[in-house]
Specification:
By secondary structure, this protein is of the alpha+beta class. It has six helices and seven strands. A three-stranded antiparallel sheet has the order 5-6-7. Strands 1-2 form a two-stranded antiparallel sheet. The protein is globular. The mean pLDDT is 80.
């Protein structure tokens, strides 16, 4: 179990690194604050247990939050290290990729300057965090972005998209879904893309992995 979101962004807001789990799990807030990267945001949430229906949104440490324009102008490696004690997310600019990574022998002990977010997990998390899958997902609404649609910089979408629809968790009748499924938005929404050169997974000691992709396993979870 557990979901790590490395590039989570709604509307025009800053990117966020968050962690979500169904069981009892918290960040070690003191350690997270002590080891937060330079230039971090002041906002943090310690409780990783997630249930959008009761406003439990998952955990988020103080972190660096570059926007989409920054990542576009500074391509490189987006990496995450997951151990039983912590999760660390890095962004390494292309010109700074270290030799250990070029050799495919990553040594994160020398990657401190590239940390985006550091999530130290309390011991009670260990029993809840299980095998993970890598998912590349471009979700247009969802429980977070859908619930806040029409606020802040998206408040100018027009009266028609903010009335006669539901505001709240993602559902067929919510306002965000009404907006993105309107044929009038086709020219604005029809084309988005990533440019990804490679996707790699490294394990300590060269350990094996499970068959990836839920659809390849007939819907069975890992």
């Amino acid at each position: 179990g557990g979901v790590l979101k490395k590039r989570k962004k709604k509307s025009h807001s800053a990117n966020k690194v968050t962690f979500h789990i169904s069981g009892d799990c918290q960040l070690d807030q003191q350690q997270a604050a002590r080891c937060a990267p330079m230039g971090n945001s002041a906002q943090s949430i310690a409780d990783c247990e997630t249930n959008y229906f009761i406003n439990k949104l998952g955990c988020m440490p103080m972190q660096r939050q570059p926007d989409g324009e920054f990542f576009s102008k500074n391509p490189g490696v987006l990496a995450a290290e997951w151990t039983s004690e912590h999760i660390v997310v890095y962004h390494i600019p292309e010109a700074s990729i270290p030799q250990d990574l070029w050799r495919e022998q990553p040594d994160t002990s020398d990657w401190k300057e590239w940390i985006l977010a550091y999530l130290p997990l309390r011991p009670n998390c260990k029993s809840h965090v299980g095998p993970q899958e890598l998912v590349l997902n471009m979700q247009l609404c969802g429980d977070w972005a859908g619930a806040t649609f029409g606020n802040q910089r998206c408040s100018n979408v027009g009266w028609n998209y903010l009335n006669g629809c539901r505001k709240g968790l993602s559902q067929p009748s919510d306002c965000c879904t009404k907006y993105v499924t309107d044929p009038a938005q086709d020219s604005f929404l029809h084309e988005q893309s990533w440019d990804i050169k490679s996707l790699k997974v490294f394990t300590r000691g060269g350990g094996g992995s499970h068959d990836s992709g839920t659809f390849r396993r007939g819907g069975r979870p890992l």
